[in-house]
Write a structure and sequence with these properties.
Layout: H1 10-28, H2 42-46, E1 76-83, E2 86-93, H3 106-126, E3 134-139, H4 142-145, E4 160-161, E5 167-171, H5 176-199, H6 213-224, H7 230-241, H8 246-252, H9 263-281, H10 285-296, H11 305-313, H12 317-333, E6 355-360, E7 366-372, E8 379-385, E9 391-397, E10 414-416, E11 420-427, E12 430-438, E13 444-450
Parallel strand pairs: 2-3, 3-5
Antiparallel strand pairs: 1-2, 4-5, 6-7, 7-8, 8-9, 10-11, 11-12, 12-13
Length: 458
């Protein structure tokens, strides 16, 4: 979803918190009244064209910020899927543009076995099977996902799970590992919502909003990435070594401090905290915490989340924080606390913190970057020679038919050799891979595009 091993600055935190805030607002917002009207069907609701029948009435209206003005009607189908005792409906549509296309439902055919494996894995992790049938809305491109009327979706949101009804929406945009991660992450939320609902029946009111967001999102990252990945550790080292002051560092060592509601603290620090609970207090600890919180959080037995954790771990709050501080320093700080010799690095003028991803050719001659204009929000891919004065030239920019999006802050989509470059672009026709040859003067030629799914590639 994001880049590994790239420097993160304060300005970049702003870009990362926007998708998180939009996602959380979409979960808190009331669901469409149309979803409660019998007889209309999920397929009608999912069709963006349907909103023209009742504009700004019973569904979310279209709003400024949608990156593409081309709306299309989807021919939605669904298949009832059974995985153990769980049942879900996989909603999908024909993505072919020609009757002779041999892969009309290629996205659904690719995704179905992955979803089944993820559900089985989560049932084992949660010690729980979802009781309610849920809907898994599978979009075949990110552009089409953003047209959905079921949820309020802005640029940067990569998947959504409702907290009020068993519905989730996921796009597949041609990047396999990203799809696996997002699908697994959102399925964790589906399991969380249903398990909390099942265990909190006697309370009469769901305690989900009393559970810290870092625990909920951190658990989704922990399970979907199978522990703590290298990218998470890199981000947390950045939080530690580039903290504003000692107070900010000390808060990182307080297990129960919620911290700022930004991506690093909620998702990545939460991911490490979930790993800490599992490693220090035994496998299954985070599920015991979730179960206890679902049954008693907000009551006299467990009035706060910290009281839930101390009850499960049989440790006082300050003892938990002390063990967490040791764990954090061992996993994140140790071995990286010596100052680097900056004299070994070369500074490239003109490179700012507006870059989110880059690639360097094997011999170090060419630098390919993906960056954003902070004033307009436009994203471009730039290339320049690192031999002599660095001058970059624009390869392509987004907000056009041939590049509706360049996946800013989403997937690593650049590659460069000594004489060729490649990048992914989301177009009006779907995700495409572009290849170009590099001439000695830095210009490019022999431009070609490949629509991966039409070649049977995923």
């Amino acid at each position: 979803m994001r880049n590994q091993g790239v420097f993160f600055s304060k300005r970049r935190f702003v870009y990362q918190i926007l998708p998180f805030l939009t996602l959380w607002m979409s979960l808190l917002a009331p669901r469409s009244a149309l979803a409660q009207i019998p007889g209309l069907g999920m397929g009608w609701l999912l069709n963006p064209e349907g909103s023209r029948l009742f504009p700004q009435a019973v569904i979310y209206p279209r709003h400024p910020g949608k990156p593409d003005l081309r709306w299309k009607a989807f021919d939605w189908n669904f298949r009832e899927m059974h995985v153990g005792p769980a049942t879900y409906r996989l909603f999908f549509y024909d993505v072919s543009e020609h009757p002779s296309d041999p892969l009309p439902y290629w996205t659904a055919e690719y995704a179905a076995p992955i979803i089944e494996l993820q559900i089985r894995e989560l049932a084992r992790d949660f010690r729980f099977w979802p009781k309610d049938r849920f809907s898994y809305l599978l979009f075949s491109s990110y552009r089409e996902f953003q047209q959905a009327n079921v949820f309020f979706i802005e640029e940067g949101v990569q998947g959504v799970t409702s907290t009020q009804e068993p519905t989730m929406a996921i796009p597949y945009w041609g990047e396999r590992e990203t799809f696996r991660h997002i699908s697994h992450h959102e399925l964790v939320h589906q399991f969380q919502v249903q398990k909390i609902g099942e265990y909190s029946k006697e309370l009469g009111d769901s305690p989900e909003y009393l559970i810290p967001l870092w625990f909920i999102e951190g658990m989704a990252e922990y399970y979907s990435l199978r522990g703590v990945d290298a990218e998470a550790r890199t981000m947390l080292r950045d939080l530690w070594f580039h903290a504003d002051d000692e107070e900010s560092q000390s808060k990182l060592l307080d297990f129960f401090d919620p911290g700022p509601l930004d991506f690093q603290h909620v998702y990545k620090l939460g991911q490490l905290k979930n790993a800490f609970l599992e490693e220090r207090f035994g496998k299954g600890t985070i599920q015991r915490v979730l179960e206890e919180a679902s049954q008693h959080l907000g009551t006299k037995k467990s009035p706060t989340f910290s009281s839930v954790v101390t009850s499960i771990t049989e440790k006082k709050a300050d003892e938990v924080s002390k063990q967490w501080a040791d764990y954090f320093k061992t996993k994140i700080v140790q071995g990286f606390d010596k100052a680097s010799d900056l004299g070994l690095f070369q500074s490239i003028p003109g490179i700012t913190d507006t870059i989110d991803h880059y690639a360097i050719s094997p011999r170090g001659k060419w630098l390919l970057t993906r960056e954003v204009d902070p004033l307009t929000g436009g994203v471009s891919i730039q290339m320049g020679s690192m031999e002599g004065p660095y001058r970059k030239n624009e390869i392509i920019h987004d907000r056009q038919d041939s590049a509706v999006s360049l996946y800013f802050f989403q997937v690593p989509s650049l590659a460069i050799s000594d004489n060729q470059l490649a990048f992914m672009a989301l177009t009006a026709r779907g995700p495409e891979l572009e290849l170009r040859s590099i001439l000695p003067d830095g210009s490019t030629t022999n431009q070609s595009r490949v629509q991966l799914h039409q070649k049977g590639l995923t």
